[in-house]
Specification:
Layout lengths: L1 H5 L10 E6 L3 H12 L4 E4 L16 E2 L6 H21 L5 E3 L2 E5 L4 H10 L4 E3 L1 H7 L10 E5 L3 E3 L1 H14 L3 E3 L6 E5 L2 E6 L2 E10 L5 H7 L8 E11 L12 E4 L5 E5 L2 E5 L4 E2 L9 H14 L7 E11 L6 E4 L6 E5 L5 H17 L5 H4 L5 H4 L7
Helix pairs in contact: 2-6, 2-9, 3-6, 3-9
Amino acid sequence: MAGAARGLSSAGPAPSFDIAVIGGGIAGVSAACELAAAGLVVMLLEQEEQLAHHTTGRSAAVFLESYGPPPVRALTAASRSDYAAAPERFGTGPLLEARTALWVAPARQASLLDALMGEVGTLQPLTPSAALEHCPVLRPGYPVAAALEPDAAVIDVLALHQGFVRGLVGAGGSILRATRVTAIQRSGSGWRLGWPGGEVTVGSVVLAAGAWCDELAVCAGARPLGLRPLRRTLATCRVPAGADLDPEGPLVSDAAHTWYFKPEGPNVLVSPADETPSPPCDAQSEEADVALGIERVNGATTLGLRSVLSAWAGLRTFAPDRVPVVGEDPSCSGLYWLAGQGGYGIQTAPAMARCLTGLVTGAGLPADLTARGVTERDLSPGRFAA
């Protein structure tokens, strides 16, 4: 609560801020912006010199309401209105560029695609020949079934992130870069955060640092949730001359999520959709994973990709049940989680930030989320309590 955050006991100093958000990626800046807009005095702390240095800046940048488990789909759908409102709210250009997505299934994946279409009513079933009309570079005979997602989009991630930063600063929030938090300790009814060369007292803390959230929780005396950072590899390849690939064509993925590609002008973004366990780190791509992505895409298409222009990797951090975690820690009052976004963090960020703000202020989950069947229990860190 904003009021409770201000009222520390005599055992500790008065808080300098109502709430501190640790992590300057899309999760942290969106949460900090919404908290500041709700009237809290907010500090955002980022360990790197540059905000969004890790996972946020390495995203495939797509908006897919069919992607992820049901709570994730609800969070994504609820975020669409936030994207639509952002240009007026933050002074950005449009953040979503309409782009279809195409899900394809070889014979061994047909049941997976059937299940997905049964769960996502907006998907349009396609015959194999119709799939090739939407994406002529698919190898004839590869898909036995396909589905079109007509309302997918490409996200302008940088503009989204910068919009939230402007919103945070405009609402009076503060940002500290190159500030690696090394101490999170109780101070009266609030918290004292420390880092080399400085410290601050705050009423509440939000853990929004991706792969580092479990480490920070232990530092604060809370139980880790068992978050799993998994490395994901992406590469940009040159499209060979003569390939019939529409530069604005659909994102294409197999139903089992073992590869995907997305046309990007004269090039194409490819991924083996890998999930390699990793410690929290500045993830780097490995040649074998890049080669695997190209091999899988070439196996499903006639592209014949060879030339790699650039390659990179990021960490997608999942909770044990692969559903994001939003809410107050069950054992540490005033310590909030905004973690486990997995591969859905960009597209769900607006709604997740509003969820967190409602839980911090006592307003509860936003009505557009509860109307979609999402409950506090679905997102709460308490669901992992023994």
